[in-house]
């Protein structure tokens, strides 16, 4: 089980302010969008789950709005107060909640539903309770 492999470590992301991280995510998303078929940049489709390409083309503004909302709603230094992981080593110095979100999206093959989130988090917290901010 995932939770049994997680060993908490120091708070992650001390040196990277949230705004800088969000700009990086925004740039990565823009790069992905440009690589989609139908753009001038790349005729080759990237490896995406079924339906993802259409969703991205139709909802690119949703991601941008979500990033702006995050930037405006989280206080400075918020991420530095979240617990990080020490183990497994390949995930060290990352926020536990970030690792959980990536794992959930991967397990659900990008098709995340509220029931799936609830089930995933309940299972995780049977072994390792999350903190309120997570």
Briefly, what is this?
It contains 5 helices and 2 strands; from the N terminus they run αβααβαα. The protein has helices at 2-5, 18-35, 52-73, 96-107, 114-125, and strands at 7-9, 84-87. It has a two-stranded antiparallel sheet with strand order 1-2.
SSE layout:
Layout: H1 2-5, E1 7-9, H2 18-35, H3 52-73, E2 84-87, H4 96-107, H5 114-125
Antiparallel strand pairs: 1-2
Low-confidence region ranges: none
- The averaged pLDDT comes out at 79
Helix-strand pattern, N to C? Answer: HEHHEHH
Rg result: 17 Å
**Helical segment tally?**
5
Shape assignment: globular
Walkthrough of the structure:
The chain has 134 residues and is mostly helical. It has five helices and two strands, in the order αβααβαα. It has a two-stranded antiparallel sheet. The longest helix is centred in the middle third of the chain and has 22 residues, at 52-73. The two termini are 19 Å apart. The mean pLDDT is 79.
Key terms:
134 residues; 5 helices; single chain; 2 strands; mainly alpha
């Amino acid at each position: 089980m995932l939770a049994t492999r997680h060993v908490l470590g120091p708070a992650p992301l001390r040196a990277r302010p949230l705004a800088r991280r969000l700009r990086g995510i925004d740039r990565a998303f823009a790069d992905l969008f440009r690589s989609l078929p139908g753009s001038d940049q790349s005729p080759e489709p990237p490896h995406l789950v079924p339906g993802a390409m259409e969703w991205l083309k139709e909802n690119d503004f949703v991601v941008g709005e979500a990033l702006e909302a995050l930037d405006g709603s989280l206080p400075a230094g918020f991420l530095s107060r979240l617990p990080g992981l020490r183990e497994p080593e390949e995930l060290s110095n990352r926020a536990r909640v970030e690792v959980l979100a990536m794992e959930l999206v991967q397990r659900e093959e990008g098709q995340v539903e509220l029931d799936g989130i609830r089930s995933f988090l309940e299972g995780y917290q049977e072994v390792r309770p999350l903190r309120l901010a997570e």
